[in-house]
Amino acid sequence: MPVTIVTLLMVAVQLSIFTSLRVSGVVIMIVWLWPLAMGLAGLTALALWSAVVAGVFFDTHAVTPFGLTAIVALALAYGASRLGKEGVGDLDSAAWWVTPLIAAAAGFVAPALFVGASFFTLNFSLWRDSLLTAMIVNAVAFFILARPMTRLARWVGNFGGSRR
Q1: What tens-digit pLDDT sequence spans the chain (164 residues)?
Q2: Is there a contact between 52 and 10 (Cβ–Cβ < 8 Å)?
Q3: DSSP label at 23?
Q4: 133 burial class (0-12, 13-18, 19+ CB within 10 angstroms)?
Q5: How many other CB atoms are found less than 10 A from the CB of residue 128?
Q6: Which of 84, 78, 70 is nearest to 31 (CA)?
Q7: Where do the domains of the chain lie?
Q8: Strand, coil or helix: 22
């Protein structure tokens, strides 16, 4: 229950703040970073759940193909949860830069996944802006926000009674 509430708050922050706050014309997608952070915290089931909730609720308010944001978030959450279960992105035992670097890689790949997957929905309007700019901006933002977001994810996951 706490994960669902925080995920819905993340969607609200995404829609009310980050969607209108653009860096070089690019929207920073914290609805992708949140499930990724949950995965890096080693909370696989909660990461996948937050990916679905964040993606579906974001897509109901955006002019994107319905479910596409959730699919990208699920891919990121699953990949990060595999690393999180192995302790690769652990905030306590790994070097300080490991979690931000993993998040930056995910932030770099996520826009490409999103635009590439839009081909299967026959929505070609997502190709109009600079994909490389979106990839770089999200990678930098994910790098900066990864550690605080993963700490929050770990705290929320533990608050709800889920342990690694």
Answers
A1: 899 999 999 999 999 999 888 898 899 999 999 999 999 988 899 999 999 999 999 999 988 788 899 999 999 999 999 988 777 766 666 678 889 999 999 999 999 999 888 877 766 666 667 888 999 999 999 999 999 999 999 999 888 555 54
A2: no
A3: E
A4: middle
A5: 7
A6: 70
A7: 2-159
A8: strand
Pick the closest to residue 53 from 75, 36, 38, 31 (CA basis). Answer: 31
Nearest to 118 by CA among 57, 55, 68, 63: 68
- When computed from its CA atoms, the radius of gyration of the chain, rounded to whole angstroms, is 15
Q: DSSP label at 17? A: I
Segment (H or E) for 27? strand 26-27
Tell me whether residue 161 is exposed, middle or buried, using C-beta atoms within 10 angstroms of its C-beta: 0 to 12, 13 to 18, 19 or more.
Answer: exposed
Residue 100: closest CA among 160, 37, 147, 136: 147
